[in-house]
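Section 5.1 Outputs to date
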Amino acid sequence: MNDTSGFETSTAPADVVRRQYLASAHGDLDALRATLADDVEWTEMAGFPLAGTYRTPDGVTANVMEQLGKEWDDWTAHDDTYVVDGENVVVLARYTATNKATGKDIDVRVAHHFVVRGGRIVRFEQFVDTAKVRDAMTA
Protein backbone atom coordinates (compact mmCIF):
# COMPACT_ATOMS: atom_id res chain seq x y z
CA MET A 1 0.00 0.00 0.00
CA ASN A 2 1.35 3.41 -0.94
CA ASP A 3 1.72 6.04 1.78
CA THR A 4 0.18 9.21 0.37
CA SER A 5 0.17 11.16 3.63
CA GLY A 6 1.34 14.68 2.95
CA PHE A 7 0.79 14.43 -0.81
CA GLU A 8 -1.92 17.12 -0.76
CA THR A 9 0.44 19.67 0.82
CA SER A 10 3.82 18.50 -0.49
CA THR A 11 5.91 21.15 -2.22
CA ALA A 12 8.04 18.54 -4.00
CA PRO A 13 7.96 19.50 -7.69
CA ALA A 14 6.67 16.09 -8.91
CA ASP A 15 3.89 16.10 -6.29
CA VAL A 16 2.75 19.60 -7.30
CA VAL A 17 2.67 18.57 -10.97
CA ARG A 18 0.82 15.33 -10.17
CA ARG A 19 -1.83 17.30 -8.24
CA GLN A 20 -2.27 19.48 -11.34
CA TYR A 21 -2.93 16.41 -13.52
CA LEU A 22 -5.36 14.95 -10.98
CA ALA A 23 -7.25 18.25 -10.71
CA SER A 24 -7.44 18.52 -14.48
CA ALA A 25 -8.68 14.94 -14.86
CA HIS A 26 -11.43 15.60 -12.32
CA GLY A 27 -12.40 18.96 -13.82
CA ASP A 28 -11.52 20.68 -10.53
CA LEU A 29 -10.34 24.06 -11.79
CA ASP A 30 -10.03 25.49 -8.27
CA ALA A 31 -7.61 22.73 -7.28
CA LEU A 32 -5.77 23.17 -10.59
CA ARG A 33 -5.41 26.94 -10.01
CA ALA A 34 -4.04 26.17 -6.53
CA THR A 35 -1.03 24.45 -8.16
CA LEU A 36 -0.17 27.53 -10.25
CA ALA A 37 1.92 30.53 -9.19
CA ASP A 38 0.29 33.95 -9.49
CA ASP A 39 2.82 34.85 -12.22
CA VAL A 40 2.66 31.49 -14.04
CA GLU A 41 3.59 31.39 -17.74
CA TRP A 42 1.73 28.55 -19.48
CA THR A 43 2.69 27.94 -23.12
CA GLU A 44 0.64 25.83 -25.50
CA MET A 45 2.73 24.80 -28.53
CA ALA A 46 2.65 26.66 -31.84
CA GLY A 47 0.27 24.81 -34.16
CA PHE A 48 -1.91 23.61 -31.26
CA PRO A 49 -5.47 25.02 -31.44
CA LEU A 50 -4.90 27.07 -28.26
CA ALA A 51 -1.32 28.11 -29.12
CA GLY A 52 0.07 30.94 -27.05
CA THR A 53 1.33 31.86 -23.60
CA TYR A 54 -1.18 32.50 -20.84
CA ARG A 55 -0.55 34.13 -17.49
CA THR A 56 -2.18 33.95 -14.05
CA PRO A 57 -4.07 30.93 -12.74
CA ASP A 58 -7.41 32.35 -13.93
CA GLY A 59 -5.94 33.13 -17.36
CA VAL A 60 -4.66 29.59 -17.75
CA THR A 61 -7.90 27.87 -16.79
CA ALA A 62 -10.12 30.29 -18.78
CA ASN A 63 -8.01 30.17 -21.94
CA VAL A 64 -6.91 26.53 -21.90
CA MET A 65 -8.95 24.12 -19.76
CA GLU A 66 -12.33 25.83 -20.22
CA GLN A 67 -11.75 26.16 -23.99
CA LEU A 68 -10.77 22.49 -24.31
CA GLY A 69 -14.00 21.61 -22.53
CA LYS A 70 -16.02 23.57 -25.10
CA GLU A 71 -14.49 21.79 -28.11
CA TRP A 72 -13.75 18.28 -26.76
CA ASP A 73 -15.51 15.60 -24.75
CA ASP A 74 -13.50 13.82 -22.06
CA TRP A 75 -10.23 15.73 -22.70
CA THR A 76 -7.71 13.98 -20.46
CA ALA A 77 -3.95 14.22 -20.07
CA HIS A 78 -2.73 10.78 -18.95
CA ASP A 79 0.61 11.31 -17.18
CA ASP A 80 2.79 8.22 -17.11
CA THR A 81 6.50 9.01 -16.82
CA TYR A 82 8.10 11.72 -14.70
CA VAL A 83 11.69 12.91 -15.08
CA VAL A 84 12.69 15.27 -12.28
CA ASP A 85 15.81 17.44 -12.14
CA GLY A 86 15.57 19.92 -9.27
CA GLU A 87 12.74 22.35 -10.05
CA ASN A 88 12.29 20.91 -13.56
CA VAL A 89 9.70 18.19 -14.12
CA VAL A 90 9.25 16.65 -17.56
CA VAL A 91 6.20 14.45 -17.93
CA LEU A 92 5.62 12.05 -20.79
CA ALA A 93 1.91 11.62 -21.27
CA ARG A 94 -0.86 11.29 -23.82
CA TYR A 95 -4.02 13.18 -24.57
CA THR A 96 -7.29 11.40 -25.22
CA ALA A 97 -10.54 13.10 -26.19
CA THR A 98 -13.36 13.22 -28.72
CA ASN A 99 -13.86 16.34 -30.78
CA LYS A 100 -17.44 17.58 -30.34
CA ALA A 101 -17.75 18.96 -33.89
CA THR A 102 -16.35 15.98 -35.82
CA GLY A 103 -16.83 13.05 -33.43
CA LYS A 104 -13.20 12.05 -34.09
CA ASP A 105 -11.06 10.68 -31.27
CA ILE A 106 -7.47 11.53 -30.47
CA ASP A 107 -4.87 9.48 -28.64
CA VAL A 108 -1.63 11.41 -29.01
CA ARG A 109 1.68 11.38 -27.14
CA VAL A 110 2.84 14.58 -25.48
CA ALA A 111 5.67 15.89 -23.34
CA HIS A 112 5.18 18.63 -20.77
CA HIS A 113 7.96 20.64 -19.14
CA PHE A 114 7.08 22.22 -15.81
CA VAL A 115 9.18 24.47 -13.59
CA VAL A 116 8.08 24.38 -9.95
CA ARG A 117 9.26 26.88 -7.34
CA GLY A 118 7.97 27.32 -3.80
CA GLY A 119 5.36 24.60 -4.25
CA ARG A 120 3.76 26.21 -7.32
CA ILE A 121 4.09 25.78 -11.08
CA VAL A 122 5.77 28.90 -12.47
CA ARG A 123 6.27 27.73 -16.05
CA PHE A 124 4.76 25.15 -18.37
CA GLU A 125 5.62 24.28 -21.96
CA GLN A 126 3.74 21.75 -24.09
CA PHE A 127 5.21 19.56 -26.84
CA VAL A 128 2.64 17.63 -28.90
CA ASP A 129 1.97 16.30 -32.39
CA THR A 130 -0.30 19.19 -33.35
CA ALA A 131 -1.15 17.65 -36.74
CA LYS A 132 -2.96 14.74 -35.06
CA VAL A 133 -5.00 17.14 -32.92
CA ARG A 134 -5.90 19.31 -35.91
CA ASP A 135 -6.81 16.22 -37.99
CA ALA A 136 -9.37 15.27 -35.34
CA MET A 137 -10.86 18.78 -35.63
CA THR A 138 -11.22 18.57 -39.43
CA ALA A 139 -14.32 17.00 -40.94
